[in-house]
Write a structure and sequence with these properties.
By secondary structure, the chain is an alpha+beta fold. It has 14 helices and twelve strands. The chain folds into two domains: about 5-200, Jelly Rolls; about 205-315, Arc Repressor Mutant, subunit A (Orthogonal Bundle), CATH 1.10.10. It has a seven-stranded antiparallel sheet, sandwiched between helices. A five-stranded antiparallel sheet has the order 2-5-10-7-8.
Length: about 350
Amino acid sequence: MNSSDTISKSDFAPTGTTRSERYDEWRESISVLFEVDIVDEFADANFDVRLRSYWLGAAVVVETTTCAQWFRRPASRIARDGLDHYIIQLFTSGGCVIEGTRQTGPGDILVIDAAQPYSAVTSDFSNVSLVLPRNSLAPLLEKPDEVHGKVFCGNTAVTKILHNHLLAFSHNLPQLDTQSANALLLPTLHLIAAAINPSLTGNDEVRRTTRWAQQQRIKDLLRSQLSDYTLAPDDIAQCCRLSRSELYRLFEVEGGVMRFINRERLRIAVQILLRPRSSNLSMQEIADECGFRSHSQFCRSFRKQYGMSPRDFRKTPVNASYSQRSTRLGSRQYESWISRL
């Protein structure tokens, strides 16, 4: 195997001499994905974390061992980082409680949709995470927007197969070249889909893939027309040669086509607000550019989605590490890998 074909590896361990320094270094680094807090202030005197990551180009594999913490992705962070990934987590020890209701343990597999709010409290744990861009897995899923927070129990046959496969895949990455690792990624995605999806026939899979492709074409069309505030379901259906009911079914998991349009307009608004020169734009100008009918509609929608007004969002400092991720080297290189997916 040529050295140029070797999979890139990043080993992160905080270098601070005090617990506070080590934890602050970890908090800043993992902010590429999560906001974190120590669960028990009396149990963090010996805080430590070990994180090894592999960059496959089309995915990132992360092996993590650390102590009990609170992991969150609130709506405001989702708006700022714009990550649209799935995170498939296999717990090899310890576990977590998600939103105070669902629980994982050793051998269980958790699916996180990074585009949706997330909150979980962990015990001390070790896990393997496969971080994937949405468009690599979504076409294989029956309901790609309804898998967030799902836990697959480690005592079922399919989960056991996936568990063993993910462990073998992760453990053997140092012996693989990039081409071989990516050749194994596709069957890994199909195995994940088999664990997530209900039992499907071959015809069901064809219909699912066809429906997903049709939905993506319509989404691309809508994204090109977002600035038009007159966009309406009847016009969209007519343009796409669909009945209104067919259009609704395609966007049912999105909460309807208009809700999808509203979220996309808000996503564009966030991009504008994060620009250094956005302070020169009024809220009305931003509303017009994004296709909202009025300044008040824009502000109401923004506050409902992100929990703050667009004006306050613009005033909130952007974490300095975000602008530096593309140049991270060595132990923190995994941050830029995740951002680039």
